[in-house]
Amino acid sequence: MTHRSDVVTRLADLTARVWERVIAGPGIAPDPPGDAETILSIDTYHAVWDSYSLPPRQGIPIRRAFIGTLASSVELSGIGPCGRLIDGIVTALTPHDQDHIPSPPRLS
Fold first, then answer.
1. pTM for this one?
2. Which of 3, 43, 55, 80 lies in disulfide reach of 74, CB 3.0 to 4.6 Å?
3. Whole-angstrom distance, CA of residue 19 vs CA of residue 108
4. Mean of the per-residue pLDDT values of the chain
5. What is the pLDDT of residues 15-43, one digit of tens each?
6. What confidence score (pLDDT) does residue 57 get?
7. Within 10 Å of residue 36's Cβ, how many Cβ atoms?
8. Are 71 and 45 within 8 A, CB to CB?
């Protein structure tokens, strides 16, 4: 049986790894070595999946916090899908004789 502290620890660790790899920059070597995006994807899948073995009163808030933290971090960094979508629309609608510079990533 999965314990709450195990799930929280694995999700807190994944949050740091995603931040380092995706937001801080792909120049950071993955740990363990290999295809960082694939490893993060698989690890995230397993950690979130394991959180479903917790009672709903524990699992739901943990999943919401994890997903909310990552989604907010990605959006605030300027590399999120919403920011990219808006930049793409603005670029498409900007007359060709004018320059449009996409929003720079926000660094915190």
1. 0.58
2. 80
3. 12
4. 75
5. 888 777 766 665 555 555 667 677 777 88
6. 92
7. 19
8. no
Q: Output the CA torsion sign for 87, 89, 91, 93.
A: negative
Task: Give the per-residue pLDDT at 67.
Answer: 85
The DSSP annotation for the chain comes to ---HHHHHHHHHHHHHHHIIIIIS-TTSPPSSSS-HHHHHHHHHHHHHHHHTTS-HHHHHHHHHHHHHHHHHHHHHHT-SHHHHHHHHHHHHHS-TTS---PPPPP--
In whole angstroms, how large is the CA radius of gyration of the chain? 17
Distance CA 22, CA 16 (A): 10
The list of the chain residues with pLDDT below 70 reads 1-2, 22-34, 36, 77-84, 95-108
CA angle 73, 21, 10 (to 5 degrees): 75
Task: Determine contact, residues 69/15, Cβ cutoff 8 Å.
Answer: yes
* Residue pair 102/91 in contact by the 8 Å Cβ criterion: yes
